[in-house]
Design brief:
Layout (H helix, E strand, L loop, with lengths): L1 H41 L3 E6 L2 E7 L4 E6 L4 E7 L2 E7 L5 H4 L9 E4 L4 E6 L4 H4 L1
Antiparallel strand pairs: 1-2, 1-7, 3-4, 4-5, 6-7
Bound molecules: zinc ion (ZN).
């Protein structure tokens, strides 16, 4: 009788462990899918430059480039490097656009108020880019 009880306990524990493994697998797969989805979703594909509220140009983020932009008050140099965009040099007095650093995530922006320039990262499937 005690032996039987022991076996029942073993079976019950095994079942519990299998449930746990199954649960862990589901959690892991879900996490993995979310992570992949997260990266696909938020990593921007293009950089859109808006000047004075109007779309000026769009550049691919995956292609390194140095772009001279002419703003309302002078020039600004936009650098695209290693999938990131930033302002290297600008004629504006506050240099806030340079201080804003590098952007590469969907929806991130660099604004140069004196030059009325806005640089925005967009994903490929963003309808705002296609329109
Ligand atoms: Zn600026």
């Amino acid at each position: 009788m005690p032996h039987r009880l022991y076996r029942d306990m073993q079976v019950a524990m095994n079942k519990k462990r299998n449930d746990l493994i199954l649960l862990l697998s589901i959690v892991l797969v879900t996490a993995l899918v979310l992570i992949v989805f997260h990266f696909l979703k938020t990593d921007g594909a293009t950089v859109t430059v808006t000047k004075n509220g109007e779309k000026y140009a769009t550049y691919p983020l995956m292609q390194d480039a140095e772009i001279k932009l002419s703003g309302a008050q002078g020039h600004a140099t936009l650098i695209i490097e290693d999938g990131q965009a930033y302002i290297k040099d600008a004629s504006c007095s506050d240099k806030l656009c340079i201080k804003q650093g590098k952007i590469n995530k969907n929806g991130e922006t660099i604004v140069c108020l004196p030059n009325k320039l806005v640089i925005t990262v967009n994903s490929d499937d963003d309808p705002a880019v296609i329109s």
